[in-house]
Backbone:
């Protein structure tokens, strides 16, 4: 099992920034990558970004490219999502997840991000 704890959400004005953190513990040796997803009220779960744990290769959704940056700290077993230029449409619950193969197998509890206009 892998446990994930997210933090860093909050309320911010449009154009502002937030940094989300996700600390992993447990059987993390099987981890290939970590990712961030989000879900806004009435909308489907949406992929945001992914980072391969060993190489650091990143992938982003088009909607956040150029504004969000995913990174990881191997020593702290933590993945981050730096969010700049936030827009009201970025308002959602943000979840981090661990991918051990092709699918994301473990999920955090989520952290709320609210962007006011």
Residues:
């Amino acid at each position: 099992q892998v446990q994930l704890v997210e933090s860093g959400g909050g309320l911010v004005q449009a154009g502002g920034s937030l940094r989300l953190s996700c600390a992993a513990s447990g059987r993390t040796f099987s981890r290939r990558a970590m990712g961030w997803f989000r879900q806004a009220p009435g909308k489907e779960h949406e992929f945001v970004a992914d980072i391969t744990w060993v190489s650091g290769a990143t992938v982003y959704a088009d909607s956040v490219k150029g504004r969000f940056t995913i990174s990881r700290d191997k020593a702290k077993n933590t993945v981050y999502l730096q969010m700049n230029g936030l827009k009201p449409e970025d308002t959602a619950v943000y979840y981090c997840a661990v991918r051990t193969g092709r699918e994301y197998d473990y999920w955090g509890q989520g952290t709320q991000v609210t962007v006011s206009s």
Remarks:
- The chain has no helices and eleven strands.
